[in-house]
Amino acid sequence: METVPARARAYVACVVVAALICLSPLPGARTPWWAVLLLALLYGCCEQVAARWRFAGTFYPVLLAGAFLLPPSAAALVPLPGALLSPVDQRPKGLRRIWRAAQLVVCVGVAARVHWAFGGRDAVVASDFPYALVPAGAAVLAFCLVLSALDGGILALAERVPVHRAWRGLFLRSPAPVAVHGLAGLMMAVLWNSPYGPFAALLVLLPMCVSWWAFAQYHRERAAHRATIRALVQAVDIKDGYTRGHSERVGQASMMIARELGMDDERVEVLRFAGILHDVGKLGVPTRLLRKDGPLTPEERRVIELHPEYGHEMVRGISFLGEARAAVLHHHERLDGSGYPYGLTGSQIPESARVVAVADAFDAMTSTRSYRRARPVAAALEELERCAGAQFDPRMVAALRRALGRCVWHPAVTADEARSPRVLPPGREGPPVSARPEGHPDSVGRSAP
């Protein structure tokens, strides 16, 4: 969203108009301004704390408590100051703040109107249980639907994510956490109207804050793992100048294939890690072999073929990688059993490894290296399809073709620039574009032994 397309800006403008409509007061509704100010201040403080903890999210219990306590137009005011003043890391900062504020105003305004229409305000004032759960549940559902719809729209327009995938994924993830926040908000609203007053309502937030802090710690731990992964990949890129940037692109291609196969978001992320880390074992291979321009001897080839096992040893203790560890070990296996390190065949090869194998070969063929020119994307796909069934899983190859039909692949020069890549004119390219120097274990298709 750093460079925002015109259609996304128009979409944000439409949401801002919808927010202004939500802020228009209903006839006959009295606004308790002290409650609006207190809830808005509380929400703003929560947003600042979240930014300090570097927690990606927002504190919905306060917003939903406002939806249960206040008239719709007053409830829609609660998120406005906090969203407009919350810290933003990415540009354009102003547009992002406006988008977030307008989105939350619409979500809270719609939820409050649904709660009002179901008679929820009277039920909250009278502490009428379990009837109060019905309008509260309807309001939470409306909040989830609007939040998912708005987020899906901006993803589709600004990030070009397919609409059905964006909305389905967002809505499936939102009901459970928002329902928990909704219950906390309902408890706040009921206690707010009790003899104990707003102070008792604020006590509801204490256990939520503790759980929120624990969740933030979990995210920090994940971020530390990812930083470690990036450091390992950078070390590989420095050591093997031929493949600089290769790991990140293999991770991207693996993610595209996984999404096309209908895998859930958590597994897609694991496959991305698998692609990024697939060559980490090259840290255990002598640099002179990785950078050798000529043919490899049988002994040198056996040394390089140990890199999947080296890589598996390096990552097997990182528990959150899951099946990515198997991909690191088996991404050079082939369906016909001629691969390494164990010569597995067909379904014996883990699915994650079959995904990474296709992504690895595709990027190798479409990247310019010092020993040969890049092959066009269409030609690389034809080569993969020619080798499907013997070397590659046909499902993975077909999934990659479908994914590339909807987005543009940007191959890059991955050779070490200091070595002056030898890009020959047409007709004098030297070795086949699908291969490293003859005898290299990363070769593809006809050039493979």
From TrEMBL:
Keywords: Membrane, Transmembrane, Transmembrane helix
Family matches, as PANTHER family: CYCLIC DI-GMP PHOSPHODIESTERASE TM_0186-RELATED, LIPOPROTEIN
Regions crossing the membrane: 6-26, 59-86, 98-118, 138-158, 170-192, 198-216
Positions of region (Disordered): 416-449
Membrane as UniProt keyword: yes
CDD domains: HDc
InterPro entries attached to this UniProt entry: Cyclic_di-GMP/3'3'-cGAMP_PDE, HD/PDEase_dom, HD_domain, HD_GYP_dom, HDIG_dom
Record's protein name: HD-GYP domain-containing protein
Any single Pfam family the record assigns to this protein: HD_5
Alphabetical list of SUPFAM superfamilies matching this protein: HD-domain/PDEase-like
SMART domains, per the entry: HDc
Domain HD: residue ranges: 243-365
Source organism superkingdom: Bacteria
Domain HD-GYP: 221-416
Organism classification: Bacteria, Bacillati, Actinomycetota, Actinomycetes, Kitasatosporales
Keyword Ribosomal protein on entry: no
